[in-house]
Q: What sequence folds into this?
C-alpha cells in the first residue's frame, strides 16, 4: 500500500519458513552496526546518524575490532567518493545488503549525493530501518527535503523518494530484485556503483555468482565494491565459521573466500572486465598517518583476512586512490 512519509501506515512483515532460515544471516546486520556505532561513540569516525538506527553496545569492543571497522568504513567511503567525483555525482549507488548503513545521509551533508541512492536488504531489516526513519526527523527530513512532492511511496518493506530508495528483497531472487529496483526508477543507463559490504559470503557461490553476473550485465558503466573475508582456510577462519554456525548463521559462500585471487576470479568469470583486490593490512598501511595516530598508532592488526575488491568498467581511476602516505 502506498502512503506518505508524513502519515505512513506500516504493515508488519509476514513470516515464512525462509525468513526463519535466514534469521542467523539477518542477525549479522546487528553485529556489524553495533560495532560501527561503538567505534563512532569513541571517536573513530564521525557519524551523527548511526545512533538513531542502532542500539548501543552492551560491552566495549576490542581496539582491533574498532580499527578493523575504521579501515573498512574508510576504504569503502574513499572508493565511493572517488566514483562520485569521477562521475560528478551523475550516477546511482546501489548498496546491496545495506543493513543500517548511513552513507546516504552522510553524502547529503557532504553535498556528494548521487542522482539516486538505493539500499536493499531483507524485508524484515528494511521494516526495522523504516520505523526509525519514520519516527526520527533527523533521518526523515533529509529525504523529504530532496523530494519535490508532498508524498512519496512508502510501505512496510519499501520507501521510494526522488533521491533515496530502500527496498526489501532477497538478493538471491534476481527477478524480484530487478523488478523492485525498476519500480523505484533504477536507471540502467547511469554509471552505477554496486556495494556489497560483508554480504556475499552468506550466499552460496552459485547465488553470489548470479548476482555479480546480473550486475555486470545490467549496466553500461559500473563498478562493484566487495568487502569480505579471505584466508578462510586457516585456523582463524575455521573458528569464525564454527562461531557463526553455533549462532545458526551459515557462511554458505566461504568457498569463494579463500584468497584475493579467488575473489577476483569470481568477478572476472562473471562478466566483469578487470578486478583488483587488497587485503586490509595493506589498506591500513596506506591510511593517512594522522588518522591512524589518533587512535593509538600502527600496531599490527588482526584483520588481514578481510579484503576489499573492486571491479570497474570502463572507468580506471582506482589505482590513484590509495597512494602511500607522504
Ligand atoms: C554483515 S551484515 C552487513 C551490513 C552492512 N553491509 C554493513 O556492512 O554494515 C550483512 C547484511 O546482508 C544482508 N543480507 C545477507 N543476505 C541477504 C540476502 N540474500 N538478501 C538480502 N539481504 C541479505 C543481511 O540482512 C545483513 O543486513
A:
Amino acid at each position: 500500500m502506498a502512503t506518505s512519509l508524513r502519515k505512513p501506515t506500516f504493515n508488519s512483515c509476514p513470516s515464512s519458513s525462509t525468513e526463519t532460515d535466514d534469521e542467523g544471516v539477518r542477525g549479522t546486520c546487528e553485529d556489524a552496526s553495533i560495532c560501527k556505532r561503538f567505534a563512532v561513540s569513541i571517536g573513530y569516525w564521525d557519524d551523527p546518524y548511526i545512533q538513531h538506527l542502532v542500539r548501543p553496545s552492551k560491552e566495549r569492543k576490542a581496539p582491533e575490532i574498532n580499527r578493523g571497522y575504521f579501515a573498512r568504513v574508510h576504504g569503502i567511503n574513499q572508493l565511493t567518493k572517488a566514483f562520485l567525483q569521477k562521475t560528478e555525482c551523475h550516477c546511482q549507488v546501489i548498496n546491496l545488503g545495506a543493513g543500517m548503513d548511513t552513507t546516504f545521509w552522510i553524502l547529503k551533508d557532504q553535498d556528494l549525493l548521487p542522482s539516486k541512492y538505493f539500499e536493499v536488504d531483507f524485508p524484515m531489516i528494511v521494516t526495522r530501518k523504516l520505523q526509525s526513519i519514520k519516527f526520527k526527523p533527523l533521518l526523515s527530513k533529509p529525504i523529504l527535503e530532496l523530494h519535490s512532492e508532498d508524498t512519496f511511496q512508502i510501505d512496510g518493506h519499501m520507501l521510494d523518494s526522488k533521491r533515496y530508495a530502500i527496498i526489501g528483497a532477497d538478493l538471491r531472487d534476481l527477478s524480484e530484485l530487478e523488478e523492485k529496483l525498476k519500480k523505484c526508477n533504477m536507471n540502467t543507463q547511469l554509471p552505477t556503483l554496486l556495494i556489497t559490504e560483508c554480504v556475499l559470503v552468506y550466499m552460496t557461490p552459485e547465488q553470489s555468482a548470479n548476482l555479480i553476473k546480473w550486475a555486470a550485465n545490467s549496466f553500461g558503466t559500473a563498478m562493484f565494491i566487495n568487502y569480505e573475508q579471505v584466508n578462510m582456510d586457516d585456523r582463524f577462519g575455521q573458528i569464525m565459521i564454527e562461531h557463526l554456525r553455533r549462532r545458526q548463521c551459515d557462511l554458505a559462500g566461504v568457498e569463494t573466500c579463500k584468497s584475493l585471487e579467488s575473489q577476483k576470479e569470481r568477478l572476472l568469470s562473471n562478466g566483469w572486465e578487470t578486478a583488483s583486490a587488497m587485503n586490509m593490512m595493506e589498506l591500513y598501511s596506506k591510511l593517512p598517518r594522522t588518522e591512524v595516530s589518533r587512535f593509538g598508532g600502527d600496531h599490527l592488526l588482526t584483520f588481514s583476512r578481510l579484503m576489499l575488491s573492486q571491479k570497474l568498467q570502463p572507468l580506471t581511476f582506482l589505482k590513484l586512490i590509495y597512494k602511500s602516505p607522504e
Summary: The first helix runs from residue 17 to 21. The CA atoms of residues 3 and 154 lie 6 Å apart. Residues 19-322 form a domain with the Rossmann fold fold (CATH 3.40.50.150). DSSP finds twelve helices and nine strands in the chain.
